[in-house]
Structure prediction request, 319 residues.
Amino acid sequence: MSDLAISIVSTNEKEMLAKCLLFIYEHVKDINFDIYVTDNVNNVSDHIKNKYPKVKLIINKERKGFSENHNAVIRESSGKYVLIMNPDVFITEGFVESLIATLERDPRTGCVMGKLLFGEAGSGKKIFDSAGGMIFRDRRTADRGQGSEDSGQYDRAEEVFYGSGSAMLCRREMLEDIKLFGEYFDESFYLYKEELDLCWRARLRGWRVMYNPEAVAYHLRGWGKATKREKVPAFIRRHSYKNRYLMILKDDHAINILKDLPFILWHEIKALAYMIFREPHLFLAWPRIFRLLPFTLRKRREIMKRAVVGPEEIRKWFI
Prediction:
């Protein structure tokens, strides 16, 4: 049985995936691990079979979302830890070992992420992709430091509200503890904010989420804060918009919503104006939200029934 399962979902990223795997095999030492690659559009399987025969391949007949793909690997795999990775993430030496050490130091740490930088190693200035996730009082979320130069401002290991799903190590015990109706990541989300939802639910169960700057990786993100919004496909923007409301409906305490209602409403007013004049296609997300509402509220009841952390503890994270 392996100590670590690494789950990577590839949607037509043949060259990047091959490089991602190369860096894993080069830099992960003295750890017994299995790599699971989910071929989401059946485009990289032959290439991976020939070059990396030890990789465990899962081939989808039809495209599936982030949550569904990673959930399948978590169910199938064994081992104490699960590393959720994107195929465009390239780890450096000691990355995995540093993350595992963080979890082993504290049995109540459920997730940990490292320092994620844009681009590739040696590509020039070190620009942040993520130093952990933060959440605002209006319930917007953002990656700390994204787009700024790394000048040591995030060189301290510390707790963060959530980790980046681009490269996040999870304790299997935590995943089993927060599993909801057979799902680890919420499959209603499809894309975007899945890791935020998972970390929020973990916090409600008393787990911690950590950032370890000693674990460094590079991320060739296709879009982000430093990228024009127009480059993000419209269907992904709709999922991100939809998932904001699913997340609030499921995970947020009513008292915290009431306390921050002016901030939330002001954001909604600005978002509504923006949608009317710039992105009316986002309104197409609402039928999906309403269809998911009964099951989302059922999930909320279960989450709040099992919560061991109250609203005041969560509220301290809202900036």
